[in-house]
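This week, work through this protein record:
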Amino acid sequence: MIKVGIVGATGYVGCEIVRILNKHSKVGISYVISQSFEGKKYSEIYPNLKNIFDMECSGLNAEYICRNADIIINCLPHGISSSYIPMALENNARIIDHGGDYRYKNVEIYEKWYGTKHQHPELLSLAVYGLPELYRDKIKTAKIVANPGCYPTCSILGIAPLLKQSIIDTESIIIDAVSGVSGAGRNTELAYQFCECTENFKAYKVAGHRHTSEIEQELSLLAGQEISITFTPHLAPMKRGMLATIYATLKHNIEVNDLINIYKQFYKNEKFIRICEEGRIPETKFTAGSNYIDIGIAVDKRKNRVIVLSSLDNLGKGAAGQAVQNLNIMCGFDESEGLEAPGLYL
């Protein structure tokens, strides 16, 4: 039985990981760390787990964290994990990190977009970007898996086949993406309160969202050249879910069914990626509560432009589900262990 520790366990991502791993047949949760709720039973914070998961929350103690888990899943924001990750590696623990600290190949890009100095740039060479569909073999043996953000996951997987096949003009990429409010975390800021979000739809961090740099890094690696994009995130009045609409100019005329076949071939062995047939468009309720991502393709022949729509659960494939998928790969388990539940729909 693999011992898994969860740091930052009482946020929405941490709660989703607990919910998934509680039914996982090959791992056991060895601790749940929460500074805000230290000493409280987990089921007091999330009563839906009463008599299901009643473990007491522990405080952030680096030595305890590092010595009591085979794999540590960090659900805290960037910067905080630096207090224990070096010690964890010394104790042969492996890390799945939801912060942005280890997603970048170039420390200068991280420091520019996150506005802070990286505490352990020497560890970047040990980290693997946690998109199984692109880096599965490296994830198997990785010491640190940098779980991607939800926006990058939705965007990168949506456009990857087009870049890999050199089908599009790389200067023309525009991504408009929409997230449910849980994407901001268990947040008490005014902008995420009910009366501010309900019956409202808004863009935010226009021309400056930090995930732009993460998407550009991975798209550049796929294309074999430097890629810059226009990326605009939006907040929708729903709890969970994400939809990205990706626009790019085609280099040549190509029929939509040919593009669909390219996508099906590219993702032919990927259980959690579902390619829609012509005329079908992804919707957030098809993937909410699951680890699936749905991708639909259309072509605007007037403009010779491809339009890709990709949908996932920002807490599922965009965070917790993907973390468990990476955990399964790291441990040599069936990749879908604990993750086969369909979307909630309602």
Observations:
- The mean pLDDT is 95.
- The two ends are 35 Å apart (CA to CA).
- The first helix runs from residue 12 to 21.
